[in-house]
Structure formats: structure tokens, C-alpha cells
Write a structure and sequence with these properties.
The protein is of the alpha/beta class. It contains 24 helices and 29 strands. The strands form seven sheets. Strands 6-5-19-18-17-7-8 form a seven-stranded mixed sheet, sandwiched between helices. It has a six-stranded mixed β-barrel with strand order 24-28-25-27-26-29. The structure holds iron/sulfur cluster. Keywords: 4Fe-4S, Iron, Iron-sulfur, Metal-binding, Molybdenum, Nitrate assimilation, Oxidoreductase.
């Protein structure tokens, strides 16, 4: 912190909301946060903040800390009832005892850790090592599985590594922005400001938006393509079909830098413009215009997010988009490339340390015996278990089936955010022990806790995060955590040290960290020689020079743009075309469930509203949840604007008002993801709680990425009255 007056201090840190990763300056006085402003030196935002970032200081005010924060560890004899406040030693002993006893009786895979893309890289590192290096289970996964895992699987399948190849600066070099399944105007607002700036500077820049909804982003487009939910693969293959016919592919690039094009060519032969137009619900002319804009662009940059990822064919969607870039040589040049936009602030950092059920440190692969041996050596353990762990949805299915007995949930609220809430809540009910580690009281998940551990939050934590463009930023504490709350990494270490005494007595500790920097330094060492090598970085470098891209090898400069030499991290050095067909959505519409429901974000809310929901001013834009429908569909059902409707899927139901909207087409509907049980409340006639939109969504997952299809559910909509 730098003292600017005798009473006011400023601390540079990073916004904890979205993956744009904006820098913030936190103002504090007398140990309390008094203000926040954008960090003018941060290369993600250059001083700007959106509505969420600019109100961060209000979520850290002392009054809110007293009412909305978990302040002491708690042991609960009865779930849902207030427990007994205990000291940290008693709580940590209880956690270690329960884990050790569960493993002794049922084996290591009877324990699961469910983490969060809101955690810092250092937090993730310790939890991952605790699970895989000490407990002996790979059952560690995260809500990032709901966010970017299809993008990761798509990159690895085609380019050979989990690494977005582009950077924000590419916005200024592109002459085509191809925005697909993303609404940056709401979900990545500061990036959208940069898009607007790029357009203002370069009127020749064309913007194509492909989305089932006419979003605010779509309003800025030169061409808006309103495809049917789930038809993206057909659309991209249809574009490639036209590019082939029109000779708009880059044969020299394909020959020099790729493999597998012949098979893809055979596949897309069947994706004729007529077939694709019918599958996507668009006209041939629009498809052709999109293909020509892409094929004739000098530098095409694709920006994409959950519309591609949250799908039971998410990997195929991502790969089909990357195919377009490879086929036209639109990659590895300024302004060109596929560029996934990360949803959460540190989904990327979590993957860097291998904090997922299928990964190991530094993007190593759990299925690779050499990688397991390397990590075991780096950690100083005998081995790392080989059996794949359970991914997010699988983990809760395993809990319900009695395979996982103890669940430790950190910094996330699965009783709102996971799909198919009936299954998730049945699983939480069935678990023998649920440990909830969180900063906030009142989450739906906390109700299931047997042990509650209070964690520190934004403005109190130290560490690092990585944003969408592979740039690592420091997170710095400006105030002390309230009550007994502790840093997440510290809680993990405290539990690990106790478990070491029980599971590997007499051996040197694996968790001898004096501070959070020691954790980061160990993580850095695991990256040596890997694609994300950060051996050229340190906290001191990040503090002196500001946020930096990875890779940044020792003695070298950070690399902002990847694959400029046309060499890819695959066995052959060539990028691979992926020939994966269009597959219809998992939850098909029928006469009983005739509407295609899609879900998404609003401008001023974040996730389940734990923080943003505490600020009245952030409800001005959208004061209550509503289902958006096409006015003609409402009229045919005799439903008036603002009336209450019952929305029912094959898994559950919810009640909410309806709003006529031109943003969705006939047959489609939209519900924002933010409002959970705390807001929609109430119970159905059969006693089932109305849990929010994820009562409706399906737990169907992509077979490669294991990401669930949160973006599509078949529903019916009926006029109703309050029960
Ligand atoms: Fe925070 Fe994202 Fe807004 Fe930037 S764009 S201020 S990172 S929420």
C-alpha cells in the first residue's frame, strides 16, 4: 500500500468478477474500504470499470461484513440449524478427523473437493496438491467445469494446448470480429468498451454476431445471425462448405501447418447451405454473407464464451470454430485467431495449477504416466493416483450414489449454480459430511453444511489470477478479514498439516509454506519447460512491471500472441482439424415441452448475486427475474406482459413473471441465471422448493469436456397464479 495522506491508503488489486481481469485501486481509511476506481496502469482496462467493478467497495463495507459474512468456524449438529461457534483449532481438527475417518473406512475416492473459479491461483494450488498428493484422490473439480472446459477441450483437440492464442490488443488489429455465443456488452463490459473503441477508430471493422438472442452485443453488429439454440456446429460447417466452394480457404497454410483437412472436407460436404439454413433456422443469404465476411477478412478474430461452452456438444462447437481459423490461416497473426473469453476471474489460473479432475500441475495430463511421475517428484510424494476424478456433475451424481461420502465445497454455491437442482440437493442430503468454506452466509449450499469454515474475500486476500488473455495479475489485500475469516490457501494448509499427522506420520511436511508467495513460487517451478512456463516471473516482477502474459520463460520476454511461427504443441507440430458432426441438443423439444429455453447473464449482476445482490443500485437495470418470450407466443397462450407463468422442464419448475421481448424468436425463451431460491422462493404443490432456473436445466454433459448443457432446456410455459 502507498500512503497518499496520513489517513487514506491505496492498494492496487484485481476485480474479482469476470475474466476480463480489470485492475482496481482500492481506497481504504482506518482499516475500512472507502472507495474503488479503475487502475489506469492496468493493461486490461486502463482505468475503466463497469457497473459491477465500480461498486466493489460497497460490497466490502463494514456493515455488510457484519451481517453478510461468515465470521467464525461452526460445527452443526443438525443441518440447517445454527451450529456451535468454535475456534479454528477445533474446527480444523474436526475437518481432518472426518476426512481421515472417511478415507479409513471407504478409501480416498470417497472424498470430493468442489472448488471455484473465484479462488486465487495459490488457493487452487494447495487444494489440488492436498487432494492428489496427500489424500490420494483425483476427486477435485470446480465450478470452472461449468465455464470453460469445452473451450479447453476444443483448444487441446485442435491446437494441442489449453492456451487462448490471442490477446486484447488484437481487437485493434482485426478487421472482422466474429462474436459467437457471447454477450460481452453484459458479461465482459470493459472488453466491449474496447470493441466499441476499435470500431470508432476503424470504421472498416466489421462485427458479426451469432447468437440465439438479439443481445445488446448483437445490436452493435454489422451482421446479426440469430441461429437456433444448439445449431452452432452446423453453422460453422456450413460456413466452411461455402469457403471451400468459393476458394476462400488458405491452401498454403493448410498444407504447411495442419493435418486432417481431408476428413473434415468429407464431413462438411454434407453441410450444404440449404441443410444448414434449415438446421439453424436462418436463410441461406445470411449464412453466405457470414462466410464471405470471414473468408475475405484480412484479420478475423473470433470471440466466444458460454454459448459454445455450456453445451453437450461444446467441444465440437469450439473445434468447429477453430477449424474455420485454421482453414483460412486466421491464426498467429495480429488481429487473427480464435479467442475464448473466460467467464470467471480465475478459471484460467485454476487450470494452470491442474485444479480439475482430469489435470495435473502446469497443464499436465492425468492420463499420462510420465506427467504423473513428474508431479509426484515435484511434490515429493510416492505417486499421484491414476484413476480419473469425478467432474462437477459426475461428482454430485457420485455423492447421491453413495460413492463419495464427504464433500468439501469451497467458495461456490452448487445448490444454485449446478444444473438439475433436484439431483444436486438430493446428493447434498445424502452426503455423510458436507464442509462448506465460504466468505458469505446464506448461500443455498450452506444449509447443507455440517462444518462451516469462514474464508476471507476480495480486498482481504493476497495472491494472483490469470485473465482471458493469459495475463497474470496480482491480487493484494487492502484490509484485514473480518472476525475469524482466513485465506482459503491457509485453511487448506492448516487442514493438510493435520491430515499429514494422521496419513503420513513422521514424514516431512509437503505444505511448509511460510506465506502465499512460497505457494506461488512452488507453482512456478512446476511450469518449467511447459507451455505455460512462468519461470521468468516472480511476485517482485509482477509488482514492479505490472501484469504479464504467460508464457514468460526465464531470461525471455512474455509472449502475448501464440503460434506466430505456425508451429503447434502437437506431436507433429501441426494443428489438427477436428471432423465432429452436428449433434442435436440433449433435451429435445416435444409437444409437452415446446419451448427452447436458454439462460445467461444480466449486465449488473454476478453469478448467484452473493455480492451484487446486496446493492440496491444494481437492481435498477433488472429488478426481478423474468422469462423473456416472443410476444406472438404469449398472445397465442393468452399470457399478458408481466403476468405470472409456470415454466416446467422434464426435471423441475419455477414461477416467475413473463416479459415480452424482441430479443428472442418465436419458440425460444430466456431466463437470467442469477436468481436462486433466496429470491424466487416458495414451494410447489408437492413441496418441492422453487430453486431458480437450474431447477429446469439438464445435467447432460459433453462427453469430452464434461461441461453441462446449461444453455438449453426444453420447457413449457403456462399462465398461473400465486400458489
Ligand atoms: Fe470487473 Fe469484469 Fe467489470 Fe472489469 S469488466 S470491472 S473485470 S466485472
Amino acid at each position: 500500500p502507498i500512503a497518499i495522506t496520513s489517513a487514506t491508503q491505496e492498494t492496487r488489486s484485481t476485480c474479482p468478477y469476470c475474466g476480463v481481469g480489470c485492475g482496481v485501486v482500492i481506497e481504504t481509511r482506518d482499516g475500512a474500504v472507502t472507495g474503488v476506481r479503475g487502475d489506469e496502469k492496468h493493461p486490461a482496462n486502463f482505468g475503466r470499470l463497469c457497473s459491477k467493478g465500480s461498486t466493489l467497495h460497497l460490497t466490502a463495507r463494514p456493515g455488510l461484513q457484519r451481517t453478510a459474512r461468515l465470521l467464525t468456524p461452526e460445527l452443526r449438529a443438525t443441518r440447517g440449524e445454527p451450529g456451535r461457534a468454535v475456534g479454528w483449532d477445533e474446527a480444523l481438527d474436526a475437518v481432518a478427523d472426518r476426512i481421515a475417518a472417511t478415507i479409513a473406512t471407504h478409501g480416498p475416492d470417497s472424498v470430493g473437493l468442489y472448488l471455484s473459479g473465484q479462488l486465487l491461483t495459490e488457493d487452487y494450488y494447495v487444494f489440488n496438491k492436498l487432494a492428489k498428493g496427500l489424500l490420494g484422490t483425483n476427486n477435485v473439480d470446480t465450478n470452472s467445469r461449468l465455464c470453460m472446459s469445452s473451450a479447453v477441450a476444443g483448444y487441446k483437440l485442435t491446437l494441442g494446448a489449453d492456451a487462448p492464442p490471442a490477446c486484447y490488443e488484437d481487437l485493434d488489429h482485426a478487421d472482422l470480429l466474429f462474436i459467437v455465443g457471447a454477450n460481452p456488452a453484459f458479461a465482459h463490459p470493459i472488453l466491449f468498451r474496447r470493441i466499441e473503441d476499435a470500431k470508432a477508430r476503424n470504421p472498416a471493422l466489421k462485427i458479426v454476431v451469432v447468437d440465439p438472442r438479439r443481445t445488446d452485443t448483437a445490436e452493435s453488429a454489422d451482421l446479426f445471425v440469430q441461429i437456433q439454440p444448439g445449431s452452432d456446429v452446423a453453422f460453422f460447417h456450413g460456413m466452411l462448405h461455402i469457403l471451400l466452394w468459393e476458394g476462400l480457404i488458405d491452401e498454403a497454410y493448410i498444407a504447411a501447418h495442419t493435418e486432417g483437412f481431408a476428413e473434415l472436407k468429407r464431413l462438411v460436404r454434407d453441410y450444404t447451405p440449404g441443410f444448414v439454413a434449415q438446421t439453424c433456422g436462418i436463410d441461406v443469404e445470411t449464412l453466405t454473407r457470414a462466410a464471405f465476411l470471414f473468408g475475405r477478412a484480412k484479420a478475423a478474430l473470433s470471440l466466444y464464451c458460454q454459448g459454445l461452452n455450456q453445451s453437450a456438444s461444446g467441444t465440437a462447437k469450439n473445434a468447429a470454430l477453430v477449424n474455420l481459423h485454421l482453414a483460412t490461416g486466421q491464426i498467429g497473426r495480429p488481429g487473427a485467431g480464435p479467442f475464448s473469453l473466460t467467464g470467471q476471474p480465475n478459471a484460467m489460473g485454476g487450470r494452470e495449477v491442474g485444479g480439475m479432475a482430469n489435470l495435473l500441475s502446469a497443464h499436465r495430463d492425468l492420463t499420462n504416466p510420465e506427467h504423473r511421475a513428474e508431479v509426484a517428484r515435484l511434490w515429493g510424494v510416492d505417486d499421484v493416483p491414476a484413476a480419473p476424478g469425478k467432474t462437477a456433475v459426475e461428482m454430485f451424481e457420485a455423492v447421491r450414489a453413495g460413492e463419495i461420502r464427504l464433500l468439501w465445497i469451497v467458495c461456490t454455491n452448487p445448490a444454485q449454480s449446478l444444473p438439475d437442482q433436484n439431483l444436486v440437493r438430493a446428493a447434498l442430503d445424502a452426503a455423510e459430511c458436507v464442509i462448506v468454506q465460504d466468505a458469505f452466509t446464506g448461500t443455498e449450499t450452506a444449509r447443507y453444511a455440517d462444518i462451516v469454515l469462514p474464508a476471507s474475500s476480495w480486498a482481504e486476500k493476497e495472491g494472483s489470477v490469470t485473465n482471458s488473455e493469459r495475463r497474470i495479475s496480482r491480487v493484494r489485500p487492502a484490509i484485514a478479514a473480518p472476525g475469524e475469516a482466513r485465506a482459503d490457501w491457509r485453511i487448506a494448509v492448516d487442514v493438510a498439516r493435520r491430515l499429514e499427522a494422521r496419513l503420513r506420520p513422521g514424514r516431512p511436511t509437503l505444505f511448509g509454506y511460510d506465506d502465499v508467495e512460497a505457494v506461488w513460487n512452488e507453482h512456478r517451478e512446476t511450469t518449467r519447460g511447459r507451455d505455460l512456463d512462468i519461470t521468468g516471473l516472480s511476485y517482485a516482477v509482477l509488482d514492479a512491471d505490472g501484469p504479464q502474459h504467460w508464457p514468460c520463460r526465464e531470461g525471455e520476454a512474455p509472449v502475448a500472441r501464440l503460434y506466430v511461427d505456425g508451429v503447434f504443441p502437437t506431436a507433429s507440430g501441426r494443428a489438427r482439424f477436428a471432423a465432429l458432426p452436428h449433434v442435436p441438443v440433449a433435451d429435445a423439444i416435444d409437444a409437452r415441452h415446446p419451448f427452447r429455453l436458454t439462460t445467461g447473464r444480466l449486465r449488473d449482476q454476478w453469478h448467484g448475486m452473493t455480492r451484487t445482490g446486496t446493492l440496491g443500485r444494481l437492481f435498477g437495470h433488472a429488478p426481478e427475474p423474468a422469462i423473456e418470450m416472443y410476444a406472438g407466443d404469449m398472445a397465442r397462450r393468452g399470457i399478458g406482459d408481466g403476468e405470472l407463468v409456470r415454466v416446467t422442464s422434464r426435471r423441475g419448475a419455477m414461477l416467475l413473471p413473463v416479459r415480452a421481448s424482441n430479443a428472442v424468436r418465436s419458440g425460444d425463451a430466456f431466463i437470467p441465471m442469477h436468481w436462486g431460491e433466496a429470491y424466487v422462493g416458495g414451494r410447489d404443490d408437492d413441496g418441492t422448493a422453487f430453486t431458480g432456473v437450474n431447477a429446469l436445466t439438464t445435467g447432460a454433459i459433453d462427453p469430452r469436456s464434461k461441461q453441462p448443457e446449461l444453455k438449453h432446456a426444453a420447457v413449457r410455459v403456462e399462465k398461473t397464479a400465486l400458489p
